[in-house]
Amino acid sequence: MKKIAxxxxxxxxxxxxxxxxxxxxxxxxxxxxxxxxxYALQKGYIRAKAERxxxxxxxxxxxxxxxxxxxxxxxxxKNGALVADICGVKSVVEAAVYERxxxxxxxxxxxxxxxxxxxxxxxxxNLFKNANLIITRSDKTLETDVAEIKEYAKxxxxxxxxxxxxxxxxxxxxxxxxxxxxxxxxxxxxxxVRHCDGFTGGSFQDMTxxxxxxxxxxxxxxxxxxxxxxxxxxxLIQHLAEYRDxxxxxxxxxxxxxxxxxxxxxxxIKRGND
Amino acid sequence: MKKIAxxxxxxxxxxxxxxxxxxxxxxxxxxxxxxxxxYALQKGYIRAKAERxxxxxxxxxxxxxxxxxxxxxxxxxKNGALVADICGVKSVVEAAVYERxxxxxxxxxxxxxxxxxxxxxxxxxNLFKNANLIITRSDKTLETDVAEIKEYAKxxxxxxxxxxxxxxxxxxxxxxxxxxxxxxxxxxxxxxVRHCDGFTGGSFQDMTxxxxxxxxxxxxxxxxxxxxxxxxxxxLIQHLAEYRDxxxxxxxxxxxxxxxxxxxxxxxIKRGND
Lengths: 274, 274
Fold this sequence. Notes:
Two copies of one chain form a homodimer.
Chain A: E1 4-7, H1 11-22, E2 27-30, H2 34-43, E3 48-49, E4 58-61, H3 65-74, E5 82-85, H4 91-98, E6 105-111, E7 133-136, H5 143-155, E8 161-164, H6 166-187, H7 202-208, H8 215-223, H9 226-248, H10 252-266
Parallel strand pairs in A: 1-2, 1-4, 2-3, 4-5, 5-6, 7-8
Antiparallel strand pairs in A: 6-7
C-alpha cells in the first residue's frame, strides 16, 4: 500500500486525512503545531504523525500559497513521489514546480469545498462529498499521474472532476470564489449592519456568510492572482454603478433593463445547489 | 369568525392564505387572473374567490407597491376593516394611507421570507415558519391593531416580530434585502460566468441565488427607496474599490487591514441561519 502524508492539518488537510482514512487508506499527518496532530489522531483521521516527507509515496500539501511554494521548491520528497497541492491559486504554484529539475511528480488540485470557519475542528471526512474538484495540468503533466489523483478524489467522494490549465483555473476562480469573498467582506461594512438584527432574511445571510475571511491567507491568494481579480472587481463595480446611476436619476427603464439583463443570464446558469 | 381576504395570490399572498387556512382561519382570495384562484382552491389555501373587498373584516394586500398604493387610496373597504400590506418599501405606502381620511385601520408588514422563484406555485403554508416579520407603525397606529396583526403572525408561525417606523424599515431593508438583490444580479454579469460550470462552490451559489429578480417589481421597489439604496450602493462600491486599489497596487498590508476590518464586523453579527 502506498504511504500517504498530508501536510497542514487545517479544514482542508484534515478533511483529506479523514476522507482517505474512511476510504481505507493509511494516512499520516504533518503539521507545524502538535495540537492539530493530537486532534487528528483522536478523531482517527490519521494513523500517525509524519516525521519525514521523503518517506512518502504521495504527499498532499494543504497550506497557504507562500508555504506551499516554499515546500515545493525546497522540500525533500521521495524520488518519484506524487505531490499535489490544494491552493486556491494555481499558476504561481505551478511555476514554482517547473522552475527547475525536481524528483517528484506534480498535479495541482483545488477542492471547491469549505466552510465559513477554518482549522481542523471544522474538518470532516464528508466535506468533499459531491463537491467539485478542479485538477490543473500543464503540457508536462502525465496522464497516469492525473489518473492516480482521480482515484484518491473518488475515494474522497468528490462529485464532478474538472481538468484545466492553471491559467484557466485562476481566471475562473477569480469570479466563482475570490470575488465572492471580497463582496461578502465589503457587504458587512455598511453603517446599517449593526442595527439589522431581526431585519434579515435568507438573502442577507447568503451575502454575509463568508465575510469573515482569514485576512492573511486571502491576502496571499489575491496578491497571487491580481490581474484576474482586479478585472472581476472592475466589472462588478461598473455594473453596480449602472444601477446606482439609474436609481439616483430616477431612470426606471434603464434600471429595469439592467435588472432584466442579469435575470436572463441567471436563467442560463446551471443551478448547482438549487 | 372574522372574514379574511388576501389580495394578490403570488408567492407571499398564496403563502398567507395557506398558512392562515392551516391555522384554522377562513380565507378568501382575490386575484386579477383566475388561474391563481383555481390553484389556491385546489391546494386548499382558500375557501373561495373574494368578490367584494368591502365584505371583509381583514384584508392582506400582497401586490407590488404601485398596485398596493392604488388600492389603499381608492379601494372600497368595510368600515373599520384592518388592512395590512406586505410591500418591501413602507414609507411611500404609509404616506398614501395617511394622505386623507380613510375608513379602515392600517398596519404595514414585511415578511422576511421568500424564494428565488415567484408566483403561487412557489407559495407554501410553511414559508413563514421561523422567519422574521417586520411590522411598521406610525404615531397614528393603534396598539390594538398591532396586537391583532401579531395574532395572525403567530398563526402563520413567524419567528421574530419586529416593530419599527416605516423610515427605519426602509433604511435597513435597503441593506438587508435590496442591496443583496442588486449585488446578485450584477454578479452574474461577469464575462466568465458562462464558462464556470464545475468551477463553483457554495460561495458562488450564495452570491448568485437571487440574481433572477422580477425586474418590474424590483424597479418599483428601488425607485420608491432611492435615497437609502443609493447610499448603500455608494458604500459598497467604495469598499470594493478599496480592495481593488490595494490589489492593483500590490499593497498587501492595506488589503489585509481592509479584510480584517470586515472579518471583525462579521464576528459581531448574529448568525441567523448558521
